[in-house]
Amino acid sequence: MKELETEIQEKLKNWAQIVSKYQKPNIKKAIWQIINTFVPFFGLWVLMYFSLDWSYWITLALALVNGFMMVRIFIIQHDCGHRSFFKNQKLNNIVGFICSSFSSIPYRFWAGTHHFHHAHNGQLEVTNIGDVKTLTVASYRKLNWFKKLRYRLYRHPLVLFILGPLYYISFSCRTPIIPFKGWKKFKWSLWFNNVYLILFYALMAAVIGWKKFFLVQIPIIVVFAIIAVWFFYVQHQHEETYKQWKNKWDYLLSAIKGSTYYKLPKVFQWF
After folding, report:
1. What is the C-alpha R_g of the chain?
2. From the CB of residue 263, how many other CB atoms can be counted at a distance below 10 Å?
3. Which of 26, 85, 90, 260 has its C-alpha lying 20 to 30 A from 20's C-alpha?
4. What residue segments make up the domains of the chain, in order of their start?
5. DSSP one-letter string for 17-41
6. Neighbour-count burial for 160-181, b at 16+ CB within 10 Å, e otherwise
């Protein structure tokens, strides 16, 4: 493993230069991605609305499909948060905020935590921010029986991929629980987003009826949240992933082996 890491460091010592050609936003591709994401999403949403008069099983089946479209909306939000979707940063923020209205994940607050995650990706001290909490074998063995049980329950598939996403959407994305200094502006943006989202949902419920709105919207959010958590899990928990303590951590190895090693599934690549 050490030899492999040394080889990676040597071959990719000019990493910044290698990836520079991928750092230029393409306005035509960006607009096309918005079109081929939002048009199918709205089309499926309307179809789900009318399917309520036929069978709710049809509605739920369509929600499974539209959940994937919501993932694509969130990917656009993600790229806007990285300031890479458009050259114009105001446009990034506008589109990212609009996307957050549908994904229900707060744009500015999440972007802040995600930037922190990228800066510390693979560091064992902070695997609970933007990642799935991971302990070394030695750290796990030092825990008492209750903490071991809690950790094992936390990483159980039922909790991690079903209960966890629901908790993340309903609580973690609504409450500024990350205790970082200097994050006051992000916390205020989170409260603003909560108020805005309540008003936005209330408006939609008033227009089409609260029952129909939530019967359509909630399944989409649930499917999206499950896929999103699974997606982040497989990006950071695969066999070749990179985890290290801060004093031994290497940014290049983290960038190569921490998440980009995992290839984006074709279902998310679209055209």
Report:
1. 20
2. 8
3. 90
4. 31-232
5. HHHGGGSS--HHHHHHHHHHHHHHH
6. beeebbeebbeebbbebebeee
104's tokens: 């229900």
Distance CA 146, CA 150 (A): 6
CB contact at 8 A, 165 and 226: yes
Residue 216: CB atoms within 10 A of its CB come to 24
What residues pair up with 123 in beta bridges, in sequence order? 244
**CB hemisphere CA count around 83 (13 angstroms):** 6
Q: Which two tokens stand for residue 243?
A: 């985890």
**The tokens of 210 are what?**
């609260």
What are 47's two structure tokens? 């179809």
Alpha helices in the chain (DSSP H): 2-11, 15-19, 27-51, 56-81, 89-103, 107-119, 137-141, 145-154, 157-158, 164-167, 184-208, 210-236, 251-257, 266-269
Summarised one tens digit per residue, pLDDT across range 86-143 is: 999 999 999 999 999 999 999 988 888 887 777 777 777 777 777 778 888 888 899 9
33, 77 in Cβ contact below 8 A?
Answer: no
Residue type, 215: L
